[in-house]
């Protein structure tokens, strides 16, 4: 049986965008990534998170790169400058439960804001983390850094 939505709840969800003056959902981009399982996978994540404005998190929906970068169409009043022709992902975004309710960091199972956070996690997860460069398979299959 579907949950009945009270008029007050619907009104609050619709008005969240009006109360969210920082336009929290327009301040970043997320990209779903494959679940990292190997040291090589995590080493790649270390490289990615070494770049400015890149965070990584895991929640109920999987693993994600979080790119902190404001939408270029966001106006000074927090409104969308291309609202009528905005992309489908923006149209499909629901504010039923969004960053206004809980931040990505607080709503995640794992959250890494920088190299040190992720490196500490990797050292706990893999006993031989610091010896990963000694493996022959790494040296053979390693892609050149650009």
Automatic annotation (TrEMBL):
Looking up Pfam families in the UniProt record yields: CxxCxxCC (PF03692)
- Top-rank taxon of the source lineage equals Bacteria
**Which InterPro entries has this protein been placed in?**
Puta_zinc/iron-chelating_dom
UniProt protein name = Zinc/iron-chelating domain-containing protein
Annotated source species: Ketobacter alkanivorans
